[in-house]
Amino acid sequence: MFSSVWNFIKRHKKKFIFTGAVVGGVYLLSKYAQKKIQEVQEKEASEYIAQARRQFHFESNQRTCNMTVLSMLPPLREAIVTQLNSESLTAMLKTKPANKLEIWENLKIISFTRTVVAVYSTCMLVVLLRVQLNIIGGYLYLDNSVGKSAASPLTPPDVQQQYLSSIQHLLGDGLTELISRVKTAVQNSLGGVSLKQSLSLLELEQQLIWIRAEVDSGRPLSSYMLADDEEVLADQACGLTEKDLVTIRLLNETRDMLDSPDLSKVLGACLNRGFSRLLDNLAEFFRLPVSDSAPDSLSAVSLPLAKIIPIINGQINSVCSETPSHFVQDLLLNNQVKEFAAIVYETFSTPQELQK
């Protein structure tokens, strides 16, 4: 029996050798493939974890942005009210002065100016802090990445503090310059409108459109948000130490972002939404009684300008409210703001950016 088996093997020897080689090759190839698949799976898992970690850090950073905006609204409101103090004029009117008409005219200009400035500056605050905190957030993500030395952070805490203090331009000189620009536009639009003249909500909206058109046609809005003079930037950095140079670099990177066309679109979208929400607030005072009906309720009710002024004057408390209002929420939850924030964060949390 063994001889017959041996003869069979000799007759088919080449086939057995070929089959053995194939089986061996398939086995080795299979092991190689399994190893490669495992490597790919491990790489994908690592990338997924890194991406999830990055996403979590980004979302946490956006919550920080929102909280920071809310915390900055009271000082912004105080800065506006200090420069546009309508309360003192209101108090003077109660004393029945001889120049009552003159005071009313001043109150008209100041009331509209401070509400328009409140909308502009709040939108600017939201956008500026989104840019600044996502630049910082991107660098912090890199600082906390695996393999990054904790001894040499990209943005040390004192640098962050110096850099973020540049927000004071918007609350200081930038705000003063914005007020001057808006006040001129308000004067040109409403200066000749009598206090007795009645305006509908549509007519009031048209006045705001004219004011915005004049403000937007002036210097770039980004100039009110961050000082653009190189010497001022250097002064803000307070010297020429290594940390101060990092601060100047951050300020320059912020300036690049603020000057980008994308940011102009985002800020424009915020302003559109902000003024739309302002008109929604004003509409509450132009409503017809429930029993009445009109084909066009927006133009059916008109109020004398003298009655509109106190309504306009009080809007700053809604616009610059640290308590989350519809106005502020509309800006913080704006999709274009979110998308731009993601672009900024992506730009500065990518390691390759450090080599550019």
From TrEMBL:
InterPro entries documented for this protein: Peroxin-3
Function: Involved in peroxisome biosynthesis and integrity. Assembles membrane vesicles before the matrix proteins are translocated. As a docking factor for PEX19, is necessary for the import of peroxisomal membrane proteins in the peroxisomes.
Chloroplast in keyword set: no
Entry keyword set: Peroxisome biogenesis
GO cellular component, one term: peroxisomal membrane
Biological process terms in GO annotation: protein import into peroxisome membrane
Record has Cell membrane as a keyword: no
Name listed for the protein in its UniProt record: Peroxisomal biogenesis factor 3
Origin superkingdom: Eukaryota
Molecular-function annotations in GO: protein-macromolecule adaptor activity
Subunit relationships: Interacts with PEX19.
